[in-house]
Amino acid sequence: MYGRYTQDLGTFAKDEAARLRLQQGHEEGGTPRPRRPSELLEYTQGRCAPCRVCALQCQRFFISKVGEDWIFLILLGLVMALVSWAMDFAIATCLQAQKWMYGGLDNNVLLQYLAWVTYPTVLITFSAGFTQILAPQAVGSGIPEMKTILRGVVLKEYLTLKTFVAKVIGLTCALGSGMPLGKEGPFVHIASMCAALLSRFLSLFGGIYENEARNIEMLAAACAVGVGCCFAAPIGGVLFSIEVTSTFFAVRNYWRGFFAATFSAFIFRVLAVWNKDEETITALFKTRFRLDFPFDLQELPAFAVIGIASGFGGALFVYLNRKIVQFMRRQKTINRFLMKKRLLFPALVTLLISTLTFPPGFGQFMAGQLTQKDTLVTLFDNQTWAKQGLNDEFEYLGILEAWRHPRSNVFVTLVVFILMKFWMSALATTIPVPCGAFMPVFVIAGAAFGRLVGESMAAWFPDGIHTNSNTYRIVPGGYAVVGAAALSGAVTHTVSTAVIVFELTGQISHILPVMIAVILANAVAQSLQPSLYDSIIRIKKLPYLPELGWGHHEKYNVRVEDIMVRDIRYVTLNCKYRDLQHVLHSTKMKSLPLVESAESMILLGSIERAQLGALLSHQLSPQRRLQALRQKALAEDGHRLSDASIRFQVRRAATSAWGCPTRVPPAATHTVFSLLGLDHAYVTSIGRLVGMVSLKELRKAIEGSLTAKGVKVRPPLASFRDSTTSASELDTTALRQLWDRHQHHPMPREAGPGGDHND
């Protein structure tokens, strides 16, 4: 219903002005000419009047088409593709500058170290400071907040222009520093902000984008665009966005997500070809695994081991990330110190990580000089490192040289890389800068662990696996693909990471082992820990309903009557003005249940608090209050007041909250709350109102006590819209102040409709 009448407000005002002008001309004795539409009146004079009218009609036709979904989605995909390409170019420039500084000081190790650690520290510190000053809401991934917003919760300033600027600039600096951070989660937030800004711009022309419900659908499509233009993976982007942001998804929005994500991914790759980074449109990390016999059936147990181990690793990553944040918050001394020195923590973390990855130092055991992109390219390599021995044959392999160490083998390097980068990524993602955790988990831990298993298999079977007199060598790069999909799926509790790796590599030869590993990883991880995004929601205490997953089977035995609130305020069908005022002052609920009477308590529906306030304002309008003051003044002069009463009657309103019987279990209530996006529901017994259950009570029943402060449930883009105070509101406020000064005088009465009288 939002924006239902504002669409015709301008036309109504013009028609009314035209009517008044014609009426004035008629009163002056003139004969009014046949009236054109009001919006064309100012264009009907002059020699070029027909041309002006035709141009205006063409303009109106074009503007009406701008409001169509496909135009909006094209604009969204185009803008996000440009933003993604520009950010990637800036990030690559920053990383290249660090390599240039490091390589130019190869004669002095001390200067190399200073350049290696100072450069990322400055970028991270700038990102943290800039984000904190401009828009603190830009910190972090953004997926947990979008998951909450799409459920109907307003998070202040999360979809504004300044948050967009802070997110883009802060993320560019953070990723340009070379820290183990990701961009997929932040890009979901950036795309959502872009969609909100486009909706606000297009709403200036009227049309469907004044409707708040339609904007929610556009936000859902924007989440898919964020992933699609980040990895050039439109199919996986749509599926991933649905899994991480939605509990229930409207199928009618499916085509919007696919269309916008595909167009955005296409433009993103076309820009790479235009910039001569690629010769043609191809996968972002193209692999060349053999297609005739990509793997043997005897390798499936190894792929299953990768999935199970990735499930434990994903749960451990989520647990470690949460414990680091909780430790920083629970240590009051450290917390107070870091609150005063907000830039000290990101600077210290960056200094620590960059010191450990310094290539001439400990970084030589973990390929410290490689960027995330270079690391992923090397881990997906077709060649078997253990078979080659990492000696003479590595001279021509370029960046693969980083994995060679004269005093250790590839297994030591991979183990050190996995262990060090694992906790570094968990620590780095707690820095208060715009960043995500998907890419570090995908590249650093997942692909590296899969490569380690693949190299181990190649060492155990140096001549490959023999099948029917044919010998097929082990392909460790395929194991790296399986490990990347499995661990990232375990951390995020998604299966769509399998589709993302297919689009990233351009091959689906390992579809069976990837799916086996991802499913096993999800089964293990979901039984141990929530997803990373749900963990962040719990840490930030956002008002989101947790999922009924593993370990919640005992909640099926709990009834709604066990958790509902029994003492609630309500409005009767025929209530007094005094009762309405008492209800409004005694509760802050945004909607109130409407019952037939206090004796029967039959639930008829609900009425919004704003509607109830409008009803009172209508019954006690400013004109009536002024009339009451005049009558009071006349009464002081000896005149007689009217004995008529003012009658307040609340008619039946449309039900705005779901009603449920007392013995419905929270499993069913959870489904309805998630499906309809409710924040409360009324509980009935044979039609009688007996209580109410809200999001808070349901969440406590599922996972324990959680409090949510600083947020309120309203339409998702309500805080994004500009709020203005009308003149009538100012007049009402002034009259209320005037009335308060004379509240000791009795209220005059007047005859009410129907003949019955109530106070």
TrEMBL record:
Supply the CDD domains for this chain.
Answer: CBS_pair_voltage-gated_CLC_euk_bac, ClC_1_like
- Residue spans crossing the bilayer: 70-92, 113-135, 187-206, 218-242, 254-274, 300-322, 343-362, 410-429, 441-461
Specify the domain of life of the species encoding this protein: Eukaryota
What is its membrane topology?
A: Multi-pass membrane protein
List GO molecular-function terms, semicolon-separated: voltage-gated chloride channel activity
> Which InterPro entries does the UniProt entry name for this protein?
CBS_dom_sf, Cl-channel_core, Cl_channel_volt-gated, ClC
Single GO cellular component annotation?
chloride channel complex
List where in the cell it is found. Answer: Membrane
What keyword terms does UniProt attach to this protein? Answer: CBS domain, Chloride, Chloride channel, Ion channel, Ion transport, Membrane, Repeat, Transmembrane, Transmembrane helix, Transport
Under which name does UniProt file this protein? CLCN2 protein
Organism name = Ardeotis kori
Source species taxonomy:
Eukaryota, Metazoa, Chordata, Craniata, Vertebrata
